[in-house]
């Protein structure tokens, strides 16, 4: 997987007018990059927060996150980029952010936040590279400039290197799932987080009612027929499946903003 270097990102920000920071609306804080925001602030560039995948989160929760980030001083737009929801509003906010024309926008985001899908939605046709999982074919491999409208151009970059704000998201978004040396530890932590919010998530996804993450991995491996030669469950493959299913939203999970209550 190619990720844009911080020196290259700093160079792109110098030439851009607006920075779009694309977050996963299910886990905005875990996919936020304080480092990106710091780079933009030092260069005097406005940051627009894009809460992508908002169709995977209840509306009231999305609205809570919009208020949260606006309270921090960021213009914030909720999007469901695959269905092009929020495109008009995002263009409006980009135009409101600076007075010059044309506006050069640099779009950044951790892998699997849907950054290239946001760009495709803005353009109205698919030519920015996308793929289902980090590191697979079609992933954005180089910096590319796209015309969105006569007055807006967008720079698409490979995903930014996760800077460690959340160790789990850093690990599972920072490299392809198949290259994880030990997928069990992040899968176990992921299951803990998911079950803490939605106790029925695993049952709905896999038909497994257990709450112990290790037991869940064992049962999932046995259900799928993944075994070692001695018959023991191949839980490493089950762990990779859990991580993939989190990426593609098969496991239903989202965070609520500070001061809100889950529901």
Could you walk me through the main structural features you see in this protein, from its secondary elements to its overall organization?
The chain folds into two domains: 151 residues, Rossmann fold, CATH 3.40.50.300; 68 residues. A hairpin with a 2-residue loop joins strand 5 and strand 6. A six-stranded mixed beta sheet has the order 3-2-1-4-6-5, with helices on both faces. 41% of the residues lie in helices and 13% in strands. It is an alpha/beta fold and 263 residues long. The protein is elongated and about 65 Å long. Helix 8 crosses helix 11 and helix 10 packs across helix 11. It contains eleven helices and six strands.
Structural class comes to alpha/beta
What is the domain total for the residues?
Answer: 2
Q: What is the CATH C level class of the largest domain, in words?
A: Alpha Beta
Quick one: biggest sheet?
Answer: 6 strands, mixed
Based on the structure given, which CATH architecture of the largest domain is correct?
Answer: 3-Layer(aba) Sandwich
Strand content: 5-15%
C-alpha termini separation: 36 Å
Mean pLDDT: 88
Please estimate the helix content. Answer: 40-55%
Considering the protein shown, what is the CATH homologous superfamily of the largest domain?
A: P-loop containing nucleotide triphosphate hydrolases
Overall spatial form:
elongated
């Amino acid at each position: 997987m190619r990720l844009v270097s911080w020196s290259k990102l700093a160079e792109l920000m110098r030439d851009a007018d607006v920075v779009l920071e694309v977050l996963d609306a299910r886990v905005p804080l875990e996919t936020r990059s304080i480092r990106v925001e710091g780079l933009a602030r030092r260069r005097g560039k406005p940051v627009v927060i894009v809460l992508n995948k908002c169709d995977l989160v209840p509306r009231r929760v999305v609205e809570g996150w919009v208020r949260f980030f606006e309270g921090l001083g960021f213009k914030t737009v909720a999007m469901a980029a695959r269905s092009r929801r929020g495109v008009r509003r995002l263009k409006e906010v980009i135009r409101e952010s600076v007075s010059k024309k044309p506006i050069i926008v640099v779009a950044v985001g951790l892998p699997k936040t849907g950054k290239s899908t946001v760009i495709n939605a803005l353009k109205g046709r698919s030519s920015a590279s996308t793929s289902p999982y980090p590191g697979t074919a079609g992933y954005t491999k180089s910096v590319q400039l796209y015309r969105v409208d006569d007055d807006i151009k967008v720079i698409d970059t490979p995903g930014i290197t996760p800077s460690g704000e959340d160790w789990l998201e850093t690990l599972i978004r920072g490299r392809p799932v198949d290259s994880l040396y030990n997928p069990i530890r992040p899968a176990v932590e992921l299951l803990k987080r998911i079950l803490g919010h939605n106790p029925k998530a695993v049952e709905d996804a896999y038909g497994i009612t257990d709450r112990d993450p290790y037991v869940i991995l064992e049962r999932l491996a046995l259900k799928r027929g993944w075994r070692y030669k001695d018959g023991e469950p191949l839980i490493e493959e089950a762990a990779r499946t859990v991580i993939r299913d989190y990426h593609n939203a098969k496991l239903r999970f989202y965070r609520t903003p500070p001061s809100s209550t889950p529901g």
